[in-house]
Each structure stands twice: as C-alpha cells, then as structure tokens.
C-alpha cells in the first residue's frame, strides 16, 4: 500500500505575516519619527538674557528649518512607498533614510546654536552686534535627533524589506486578470480541482 505523505505547510502565509509586520513597523517608525521632529522644532531650543534683564529665546524652527522640512519629506516619501515597487521603492526608502539622517545632523548642529538668540536680542534692542548672556539649551534638539533617526530607520527598513510589501495597484490587478481569462471548464481530476481553486475559480461550475 502506498503511503501518501502529508502536505507540507506552505511558507507563503508565514512570509506574508512577516511582510505585514515589517510594513507596520515602517509606518510606526515614520509617523513617530515625524511627530517627534515636528513637535521638537516648535519648542524652545535656546534661551538667554540681554544685560541680565531682557529674556530672549529661539525655537528649533527659528534656529534651523531643515529638521522640520526633512521630516515632512520623509513622511510624504513613506506614503509614496505604496504607489511604487521594485527599484522605485528602494529609491523611496533611500530618500526617507537620507531625509532622516539630514534632519538628525541639522538637529545636532542646532543643539549648541547661540547665533539665533543673539540675532533675536539684536532685533529686540535694535542694536547690531548685541549678544545674549547666560544662554542655555533645552533637550528638544535631542528629541528631534531621536525622531530623525527613527525616520532614517524607516527608510533603511524600506530598502531592506520593501520588496515584499503590497502596492496600491496589486489589489486591482487580480480581478482584471481574472476577467481577462476565459472561463475554465469543470475540474476533471483532483489536480485540476486544486489548480482551479488557486486561480480563484469555482471548480464545480459548468
């Protein structure tokens, strides 16, 4: 008597689950990173006093517009991941990674900036060359840097794992292809039966 071995479990569901998890992780990193950067640049990064009396301060966006702008670029590029595939998706992932790294560098450089506070002091007093005293810096630049690194991680993940993610167009490809195929006849053998199911057809029809 011939013993038929049990069918092997397909690796497709496992691969699909891993693909969905990596896609969800990319989206989480992108959104969280962009929110951290955009929130941080709206907060005070440096503050000081002029002649010990007049308080002056500068927000992250006043010190540098790059972190916020690059965070928006990364966020928009991550959305574009769903509209492209193949080499285009790798290019988008690289763009997100570069935007994140650029924002991180800009945030790090702005963490010790004093020129913007000095410029604010000169503007308020109307005296060129005025500088602020006792300038202190907040932790917000480092929050922006952390968010930027999350964006860079999202871009790197897209480059490494994005090839297996779905695109917006694939959900419409299968129905169109199914309509283009001629209807198959009833399944005559077990093999025909399973092939028809794989094609999304009713093997009992006809």
> What's the end-to-end separation, in Å?
35 Å
Strand content range: 5-15%
Largest sheet: 3 strands, antiparallel
Helix content: 55-70%
Spans of at least 5 consecutive residues whose pLDDT stays below 50 are 170-178, 180-184
Shape: rod-shaped
Summed over residues and divided by their number, the pLDDT gives a mean of: 81
Question: What's the SSE blueprint?
Answer:
Blueprint: H1 12-41, E1 44-50, E2 54-59, H2 60-63, H3 66-80, H4 87-110, H5 115-125, E3 133-137, H6 140-161, H7 170-180, H8 190-198
Antiparallel strand pairs: 1-2, 1-3
Q: How would you characterize the overall build of this protein?
A:
With 206 residues, the chain is mostly helical. It is 61% helix and 9% strand. It has a three-stranded antiparallel β-sheet. Helix 3 packs antiparallel against helix 4.
Q: What is this entry, summarized?
A:
With 206 residues, this protein is mostly helical. The protein has helices spanning 12-41, 60-63, 66-80, 87-110, 115-125, 140-161, 170-180, 190-198; strands at 44-50, 54-59, 133-137.
List descriptors.
three-stranded antiparallel sheet, 61% helix, 206 residues, single chain, mainly alpha
């Amino acid at each position: 008597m011939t013993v038929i071995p049990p069918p092997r479990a397909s690796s497709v569901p496992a691969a699909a689950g891993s693909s969905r998890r990596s896609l969800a992780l990319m989206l989480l990193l992108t959104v969280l990173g962009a929110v951290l950067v955009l929130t941080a640049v709206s907060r005070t990064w440096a503050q000081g006093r002029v002649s010990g009396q007049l308080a002056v301060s500068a927000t992250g966006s006043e010190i540098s517009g790059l972190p916020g702008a690059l965070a928006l670029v990364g966020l928009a590029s991550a959305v574009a991941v769903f509209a492209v595939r193949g080499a285009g998706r790798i290019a988008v992932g690289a763009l997100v990674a570069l935007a994140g790294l650029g924002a991180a560098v800009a945030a790090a450089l702005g963490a010790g900036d004093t020129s913007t506070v000095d410029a604010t002091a000169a503007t308020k007093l109307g005296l060129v060359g005025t500088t602020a005293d006792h300038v202190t810096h907040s932790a917000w630049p480092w929050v922006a840097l952390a968010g930027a690194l999350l964006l860079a991680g999202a871009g790197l993940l897209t480059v490494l794992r994005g090839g297996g993610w779905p695109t917006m167009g694939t959900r419409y490809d299968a129905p169109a292809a199914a309509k283009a195929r001629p209807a198959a006849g009833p399944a005559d053998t077990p093999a025909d039966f399973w092939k028809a199911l794989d094609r999304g057809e009713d093997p009992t029809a006809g």
